[in-house]
């Protein structure tokens, strides 16, 4: 049991070191501006059939558009990049072709991964606010709270037809 715990601690430490190392290196590799990010939101939205404003709202709430954001959660996982991709997704993403965790530091790649994660929620829950909340939380209460944050961010950029 001790050896297993030690192994887990070593893996976590190595992962943290890799994140720290790639964060600085990738800061120089990936250049972006507002227009290129906008195109990534549009293209990822088209690909996954998700409105770009919704993806934009998630990035605003998650990282305030900081592609180098790295946050440690209480459960020991990390949230990475613009869309704050949780490190618990890494094994799943590797099954879908993620070769290097440092790819998550690429702002456009990060947006596409975030759109894919949201699309998984939409497949389960429909195109609903609950699905938006699923991007960030598992409990219903937290999903409602999160989706309200997203709504408040994107509300000024949406419109409704007059009846």
UniProtKB/TrEMBL annotation:
Q: Does the keyword Signal apply?
A: yes
Q: Does the keyword Signal apply?
A: yes
CDD domains, alphabetized: LT_IagB-like
Location of the Transglycosylase SLT domain: 39-141
Signal sequence, renumbered to the chain: 1-20
Q: Which domain of life is it from?
A: Bacteria
Q: Which InterPro entries match?
A: Lysozyme-like_dom_sf (IPR023346), Transglycosylase_SLT_dom_1 (IPR008258)
Q: Which Pfam families match?
A: SLT
Q: Which UniProt keywords apply?
A: Signal
* Name listed for the protein in its UniProt record: Lytic transglycosylase domain-containing protein
Q: What is the lineage of its organism?
A: Bacteria, Pseudomonadati, Nitrospirota, Thermodesulfovibrionia, Thermodesulfovibrionales
């Amino acid at each position: 049991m001790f050896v297993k715990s030690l192994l887990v601690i070593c893996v976590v430490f190595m992962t943290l070191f890799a994140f720290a190392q790639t964060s600085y290196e990738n800061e120089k590799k990936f250049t972006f501006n507002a227009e290129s990010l906008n195109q990534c939101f549009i293209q990822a939205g088209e690909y996954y059939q998700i409105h770009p404003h919704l993806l934009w709202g998630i990035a605003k709430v998650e990282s305030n558009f900081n592609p180098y954001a790295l946050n440690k959660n209480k459960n020991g996982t990390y949230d990475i990049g613009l869309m704050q991709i949780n490190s618990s997704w890494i094994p799943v993403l590797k099954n879908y072709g993620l070769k290097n965790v440092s790819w998550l530091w690429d702002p456009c790649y990060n947006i596409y991964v975030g759109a894919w994660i949201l699309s998984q929620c939409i497949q389960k829950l429909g195109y609903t606010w609950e699905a938006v909340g699923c991007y960030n939380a598992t409990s219903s209460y937290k999903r409602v709270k999160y989706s309200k944050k997203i709504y408040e961010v994107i509300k000024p950029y949406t419109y409704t037809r007059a009846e």
